Amino acid sequence: MLFYICTDWALVIVEMHPHMWAKHNMFFKRIPHELLLSSVKHPHLTVDSNMENLECQSKDEDNCYEILKQEKKAATKIRLDLLALWFAAGKRNSSHFRQLAEESIASIFRLLTIPLMGSQDIFGYSDLQHLKIRLTEYSKKVDLSNCPQITPAILLLSLLPSSYIMDPAKKKIIEKFFINSGGPSKDRHVFPQRLLQTTTFEVVQEVDISKCWRLLIEHAVDYFCKSFPCLRILKAAYLLNIGTISFLQLLEKFPLVCEIDLTVDSTPVIPALFTILSSNPALIPPVPQKTSIINHKAVEIMPFYKFGPPLSNVTRLTLEGRTDVCDSVLLYISRFCVSLCHLNIKGCISVTDVGISDLICRCRKLNSIVVCDTSFGINSVQALSSAISDGGNTSSVHSREKHLNSVASNLQELHMGGCKGVSDSSLLELMSQTQLLKSLCLRGTDLVDQALYNFLGSSLEMLDVSNTKISGAALAHVVHRNLSLKCLKAKDCRNLFPDNSCIEKRECCFFSLHEELHAEFRKTYSLEEIEFGWGFSTSSLSDMEPIMMSLKTIHIGLGGMLGEDALRKLPSTCPLLEKIILHFQVISDATLTNMVSSLINLQELSLCYCFGDISMSSFKFSMQSLTKLRLERVTPWMTNADLLILSQSCKNLVELSLLGCPSLNSDSQEIISHGWPGLISIHLEECGEVTSNGVSAFFNCKALEDLLLRHNGPGLQRNFILKAASEMPLLRKLSLDVCDASEGDFDIPDYANRYSLSTVKIARCKSQRCAFNLPAPPRRSVHVESLVLVWNSRDLTRTVVKERL
Q: Coiled-coil segments, which residues (predicted)?
């Protein structure tokens, strides 16, 4: 066992080339030379080794490092073409890995941009070995996520025996298939299965192909079915080429699969947040399809009894954000997934309350349901609350027995945030039956105090009652009974404390609340995340101090008032903090400096609309753990020089958001892209003249997934959307403003050319008439009307919305 542990460890060392780290690690030099050498030479290690040179090395401990250095001499030893894009991009600012990262980026983009036609010599290689994903008989998980360069041909090549590549005849067949599988059409060259047989990897139980948008699901399913017969978990998130038909194929071909994740980005057009002015599908010709079974439209109209699908072992199904999921899909799921325990349809705005309730009535084994921002309403609540009866007759069931024999009584997770269709009376009934809940989200619902008083559970670990009308007393009732609570979110709750303007009275009320709970909280020390707003104050934090030592996340929203003393004590009160989000707080330079220098685990810092004398001196400390930084209306003094210092202090950022930095200019793009080449999210709004001369340097952030540029200068090219999608192959979300367009408008790419894009939002400010011919907005509005483009598995929907202020 030790041998294989060391083999896996050596694999990580050699694969990622962290020999510089190993050289300074005190434990590495203790590894016996013979053991490390044997590990590297072992055939199951997925990195080939330069054996001739290794054999000649002396056996003193310093030469352990030479074993690792040998890999650097052969570029083909590491499959640079197949590294995850985010990993390669993130290493471009590393002094040790920069050359490796640049080579990897170049290799990845050769696969992405060069048509797969003609000889393989166009890639600079004489064989296909460099394109094989490493798999062994011991592989349990195949993780290809974030690799947009993966194609059906590369996947198939990896599943074929290595001997095939050495056989000229079989190699010719492989190359022919590889050449003909690169076009945009799904009507591809069919692989000759009779001539070549794939290898079977019976140990593989999990496959992740998330964000591999060039990998056609129809081909992938065929290959996985033959090579991974024991597959149990399939993750295929953020792929818009997986529609209902592919989903059905997946379920039919994998009887052992128990977990499926088909998450996509939730549409920003949530009815509770926007007024929809108009919506219509774009007139885009459908993408040609050729599948081995019935097409998508037939699925929706064919009677389900004709399918006769086999029973399924699927217990966890995630369809979050999928707008192509409608009631007919839910009906199919309810008849097919008879063992379903967990269902996530968050943001599936095409389903109805009736459709959800029908599924609940059929899937009686459900113990976890996530329906946030859907039409989940009274009918669905009634389905959860009704007694389980095979005969469907519940009239004779005693009230208490009914409560103990309903789907609600078995639920451990219920997330229904943003569901406005649930009445207060139905919530009263539902809460009285959910004694086993461990995770409960009621954000933005018509939750009233009595519903919380009806809740008798004592196992809650997460509770979200944000943006509701509950009182402090009702919240105290729940917290008092659930001493294992780890996460408590009560932001935007205006009735949490008495409705008066007297700060002293509010603090006294909150003190009374925690005085009551103080003795119970001291027994647990389990609280890890809190979100509060209205009424939360310095004394509130002081009263909670005994339970704050384990806190990892603190979020203080509008209405919360932490004083200077409380913020200054935060690092000592909560030494394990990883995430700090502060809105409308007064914070000084000294306090912020104390935070960033003392909290060594801090990973996310968000300061939004805060006041105080913050300066650049607060950000001159090294913050190597920080990966997310949001500064909104707190650094109006920021210049390019300051931005450069920030990039040197926070080298590992993957998300950056700046709002209100008017001194920045077009040179800021180079500072950002060079300092943080691995960014996956950039939000810049009202940041001077950053885009006045167009956008070029941002395209060097090759792993970007989310880009927001608004009011940074009218220099964005007309073809910016298509250009951004082609230069940044993982880009899914793009937010722009018409006033930044150099020609007053943007070209909209068609489906075939939108790459991985799922959502584009184009806003219009009050000073400019909209390019999509809408009436001029009122002068009191700023960002009122927006054009939202949402791509799903079949088409493009154009929606014009007006934000509800």
A: none
**Whether the domain at 458-497+514-626 and the domain at 628-766 fall into the same CATH topology:** yes
**Residue 539: helix, strand or coil by DSSP?**
helix
Per-residue pLDDT band for 45 (boundaries 50, 70, 90) equals low
Domain boundaries defined on the chain: 458-497+514-626, 628-766
Share of the chain above pLDDT 90, in %: 39
Query: Would you state the structure tokens that stand for residue 358, as one six-digit string?
Result: 């029908």
Which phi and psi angles does 467 have, rounded to 5°? 55, 45
Beta bridge partners of 655: 628, 681
The domain over range 628-766 is classified in CATH as 3.80.10: yes
What is the overall mean pLDDT for the chain? 77
Q: How far apart are CA 774 and CA 786, in angstroms?
A: 10
Quick check: 282 and 224 in contact, CB under 8 A?
A: no
Closest alpha carbon to 682 in 146, 750, 671 = 671
Helix/strand/coil percent split, the chain, to 5 = 35, 15, 50
Strand-pairing partners, residue 764, are: 785
CA 481 to chain centre: 33
Number of Cβ atoms within 10 Å of the Cβ of 555? 19
Residue 675 tokens, joined: 């300092």
| Runs of H (alpha helix) within 26-146 | 33-41, 51-55, 64-69, 85-90, 98-113
Top CATH class of 458-497+514-626 equals: alpha beta
